[in-house]
Specification:
10 helices; 6-stranded mixed sheet; Creatine Amidinohydrolase, Chain A, domain 1; 4-stranded mixed sheet; about 30% helix; 2 domains; hydrolase; Creatine Amidinohydrolase; about 425 residues; 16 strands; alpha/beta
Length: about 425
Amino acid sequence: MNDMAVPTLSTAERDRRWALTRELMARENLDALLVFGEHEDAGPAQVAYDTWFTNERPGTTVVFPRDGEPIVHLPGGMFILDHLESSRRGDESWIPPRNLRASRTSAEITDTLAELGLNGGNIGVVGLGAHLPWHPEGILPHTLWSRVLDKLPDVEFREMDVAVALMTMRLSDEEIPLVRRSAEIGDAMVQAMVDTAGPGVSEAEIYAAGMAEGFRRGTLPAAMHLWSGRDPVASGIPAWCYRAQAPRELADGDVIYAEVFSQFGGRHTQHQVTIAIGDVHEDFWRAGDVAQQSYHAGLATLRPGRTFGDVVEAMHAPLDAHDGQTYLIAAHSINALLAAGKGRGDISLLPGAEAYPPVHAHPTFMAGLVLEPGMCFVLEPQYAFGGHLAHVGGTVIVTEDEPIALSPLTRQVLRARR
């Protein structure tokens, strides 16, 4: 891998982001932003807006005053060691040591706010609002936040999760190469899985091949979703990741479903994978054709000035024109994950679903979001005939004209090499 080709972020990008932040605070009449980040021990942090401000390791709490530099609270001493070692190696850090704090307890956070004269006034908070799909009611620990409120009775705290997410959505000229790099890595992960798959191969070998390729290319991929079988419908990490059982061995006529997640420099891509092993049922190919029609309908609609709802409706037109089923949403935003497509509730039509809580249809979330150049979306239509399901798609970027369609590999059902 040629290190010269690896994109990086400059201090000009830092200045752009910080200027946008100050403009947001001025517009919203805020004296500061308080940004809580999720830690990365289970993989890349899902709620990591702190890294957008810091370009550092996720899991910190950022206090960003409207007038002045951000102060970054660290979870512990290991973060100081990381920062120190990066400095020794000549890395250019956005946050100097003088603006780091060694703890992010409620006492430390409130001390910083008082030190900055922010123990009154208006403070926007990232961490109180919904972060779909895993944190519908925020990420803030109850005890920590209760103590902050008790210590600062004169502060008006306002939820700013959506406003900050929207602020980060239009990628800059320096950020688009990060997404391209992420997609290249994700495609390589998928190709490694295709090259490894075949009868007699364990699911664990397929999983290892994909994840190892991501690590080999210099990033930390999130745990992929992967299931296999003659007609599987599951969507998530394999059962052997959390249950005491052996990984399944592939057979001729199986399919593999996977969602491959890649990221580089805090910018993410997603890759929808269906791999046919040998001679699979013809309905998989029929379903793949419908899913491809949906993907291309969404791509044709992804233009500045249109809405996310327009894209979702365009993608559902071919899905609704056939007599099969769709179990999950067809599209969502990424970088940041805010908007999500509608669901038809077809899960309740599956044999055996009557024993489970009903899954109801739901409308598109943030259907009115107007598309702007630099926004990223995942077009991920799936379709099934008689339980034979195909899932295709990947990440796309809105531009002034034609969208950038990344991950050409996963726009169709793939065949195993063996």
